[in-house]
Amino acid sequence: MTSFTAQRPPHILVVRNDKLGDFMLAWPALAALKAARPAPRVSVVVPGYTAPLARCCPWIDEVILDPGDGAGREARRELLGRLKAGRFDALLTLFSTPRIGWLGWRAGIPLRLAPATKWAQVFYNRRVTQRRSRSEKPEYVYNQELAEALLEALGLAVPPRPAPPYWPLAEGEREAQRAAVAAETGLDATRPWLFLHAGSGGSAVNLSRAAYARLARDVDARLRGSGVTPAWVLTAGPGEEANAEALAEALGEAGLEAKRLPASPGLEAFARRLAAADLFIAGSTGPLHVAACLDRPTAGFYPSRRSATPLRWQTCNAEPRRLAFCPPEGAHEADMTAIDLDAAAAAIARRLTPSPISEPSP
């Protein structure tokens, strides 16, 4: 086995080439890798969609674009060539697919580690049995365990797990983002802001727009009854703008101060805007996990099926900063109408009273 030093640290390739939320839940594992000594050089393979966030992740040294399963022969050959040229010491695949396993094998990466699931594991010479479908741990913890197994296989001591935030921003950036949102929306930056993302990105089961409107009205009333005057910021992903506009209009008609966050020039700019939130409310979708990486307080709404429980897709912010709600026992696993919205509103309001969670504004 290679003896690694600060002058010759291990070069690790990490693959998480699917959706935004899945990628954000890889950041704790990336932080764990970077905490080892000597600190590895970490490259990642990601799709073009999540690449802007990969480029601003403090735990990543190099971003390699994955052209995807449908790429032509030339793009596939180019990716293989880049992996061969990288002379990686190890490959860590957080979500195993035959194509990526084959690429790692063809690239001659000597240590290849992945979860022991599906037939793709034949391409790996180190496998970790996790049985994620049982949903016994959060996804980001499963990822951390894989990172720690890789460090052990490389002969490196496993460091203590890093604590949130997994996306630490520069000093003053949160205040700058609040100032930017205030300028864009006209909202008072001294009031607590509740960001609400009613979209689902086409994947997560979510509350309806009417349910979110009811929840917001109840939370708002409870906060005002406690002497707190909140403002609401409605966010949206591509194709979700009309839904956010309609929700903002409905909340305004109900007497709430609500504004839609204007479209951002790109994913990174949108993600950084979420640092301005005093609390972020959404289904189990990408923006919720971005907010959690920023260690903003979150309230997530989940189905209760085994593969999508609040525990499995738990946000990676600090424990006191996260709330989770799902259908009760006895209800259909995807029946989001069975969630007790009154109880959810009470819990959310408690997190913002008697004083806002947010750090004082300058």
Automatic annotation (TrEMBL):
<keyword id="KW-0808">Transferase</keyword>
<dbReference type="InterPro" id="IPR002201">
    <property type="entry name" value="Glyco_trans_9"/>
</dbReference>
<keyword id="KW-0328">Glycosyltransferase</keyword>
<dbReference type="Pfam" id="PF01075">
    <property type="entry name" value="Glyco_transf_9"/>
</dbReference>
<dbReference type="InterPro" id="IPR051199">
    <property type="entry name" value="LPS_LOS_Heptosyltrfase"/>
</dbReference>
<protein>
    <submittedName>
        <fullName>Glycosyltransferase family 9 protein</fullName>
    </submittedName>
</protein>
